[in-house]
Protein 1
Amino acid sequence: MKAIRVQEYGDESVLRYEDVPDPEPAQRRAVVKVRAASINRGDIARRQGTYGGGLTALPFTPGWEVAGTVEALGEGVEGLAVGDRVIGQLGDGGYAERALVHEAGIYKMPDEMSFEEGCTIPVVFLTAWLALRKMCRLQANETALIQAGGSGVGVAAIQIAKLAGARVITTAGSDEKCARCLELGADHAINYRDKDFVQEVNRITEAAGADVVLESVGGEVFEKSLAAMGRYGRLCVVGNSSGQTNSLDPRTTLMFKNLSVSGFYLGAEIAAGGAGPIMEELLRLFQQGKLRTVIDRTFPLAETAAAHRYLGERKNFGKVVLVP
Ligand SMILES: NC(=O)c1ccc[n+]([C@@H]2O[C@H](COP(=O)([O-])OP(=O)(O)OC[C@H]3O[C@@H](n4cnc5c(N)ncnc54)[C@H](OP(=O)(O)O)[C@@H]3O)[C@@H](O)[C@H]2O)c1
């Protein structure tokens, strides 16, 4: 089969479209014929060798989430049949014509959902849900500030915060992205290139500040997010798209406003067994029409390098999908 292989860290050119052996069914794992695979920003960091301190072992095939049909079942797999339409979440190997997925990461896909839609759900919707609801305990009538509203995580977070009954303020880097955030349900969208988002949050909340912040950018955005929070505010860090680091003096930044800062990593939640029930709940909400996927573009698997370049240049609003 064809797959994308990364043999060395680097720019998009290290994403090679190659022939590799088909995966064999294994204990409690199914072979899924991939019909669509989603790209996440973490895939770019893994390709560059900077993810989690550069620990991604070479060579590897990127791809944490796919949608397709079950082609073969390994020993001990229960509740699945060959031909089932599924969403698969995996540690590696999604950018390929076939993927080996542990049964714990396989979800039956609603009939009306397309493969392109299905593959874009797990990473960003689980992260947004768990960061806002579990880590920050977002309540109805609170104000949530969602950084990078046009990111994959952002488009999920705007919807999840609205569903929780919160007022949503979001930021994005262009008027076009801001308009699309408003269409998606955000109450306010701030183009941070034109306006200071701390001042804007203060104006919108009449100086009360945000109750909850979903922070995925890092650097100055993290520091200014703390300044945009009100008393007893809760901020959850889910990413560091800017690549900038932070140092924090808790006394001056947190103490005087009684702020809480947490971090969330989906991999740790999956390892702890917490993702499955939330994914089932998310799929119910999709079936009820209360959530929707936002797909910006699809690229053929053979053109993964161009797809990474597109995401790296911040051109996407929502998700970018690969089709084998
Ligand atoms: N913790 C977890 O388990 C988890 C799970 C999923 C994702 N994440 C993280 O969450 C973040 C978002 O992921 P994603 O896949 O949704 O990202 P994405 O779709 O690639 O969007 C990222 C957006 O961030 C904005 N941004 C602001 N400042 C930036 C900068 N200096 N450099 C690059 N982008 C900047 C850009 O939008 P504008 O042009 O509008 O500024 C960009 O399009 C990433 O950091 C990712 O690693 C973490």
Protein 2
Amino acid sequence: MLKSSIIKDLALRAGFDLCGIVPCCHFAENEHYFREWLASGYGADLYYLERNLDKRFDVGRLVEGAKSVIVCGVNYKSPRSMGYPAGCPTKVASYACNRDYHTTLKQMLATLYASLKELVPSLCARAFTDSAPLLEKQLAVQAGLGWIGRQSLLITPRFGSFVLLCELVIDHEVDCYDSPFEGSRCGECRRCVEACPNGAILPTKSIDACRCISRLTIEKSPDLTSECVGGDVGLAGWIFGCDECQSCCPYNRTTPYATNLNFAPPLFDPVEISAEEWQRMSEELFAERFGQTPLLRSGLQRIQQNIKSQD
Ligand code: SF4
Ligand code: SF4
């Protein structure tokens, strides 16, 4: 049987900062709340969230023969994660200032899998990096890595919320599973709710995607005048993603910066690129400078539209 301590050691060697292991289970309560959230329309046009709902909450149905989930996390905090100069019109969420994390985390999971395979050649596994219907934040709580904050993100005691998650689902049992993280440490704090420029944080530790800048700058068409419950929305200087509800969180204040070389130092600092420079940029230069980053997902034209909509 695989030993938990060995898996965790190999995860650290693969570059992860956090690792917890859980048996496959069905998150019935979460499925109930998620279905209610979707039915309330808070998912906006993120229709992909509605697919494979039964599998999303039951890893055993997602991967045949699955027995355990190795939940891994990597700290990506950079100085820019903690904020921008007042009035900066070209803010980019700090995760996006690096190479696309889907690629990076997949490579790290492949390294972990290869190491485990050396120990147990019969092992079969499937890797997930935010790309499949997996309830990764809840899995991370079950794996003892942290709690879900009021802004709906995982907060870990050691690294705060600037943590990227990924999972290796394996068809073997492990000698010792982690205990779930009990309770929330948010207490009476409401800083994230107060800091959100669009009031997008709901009382149920979930987000109104219609109002969330992360979606408004990346997923949605840039027409901000569309029917948003609760009044107008704006982008508050963000041109890709938004970190406001994280940079204000007291649990991020004293956490260390990333040490993993995939995230430190970041590939660029958005403060050094003016709005005019973005507007003048050619597609060739964009591909050359940002082709490896998540900015490619929205594309140059979308970034330019986001800037223009804030003129
Ligand atoms: S990412 Fe920005 S807009 Fe979305 S909930 Fe957080 S602070 Fe609000
Ligand atoms: S800002 Fe406060 S309420 Fe929000 S997630 Fe952090 S600790 Fe919780």
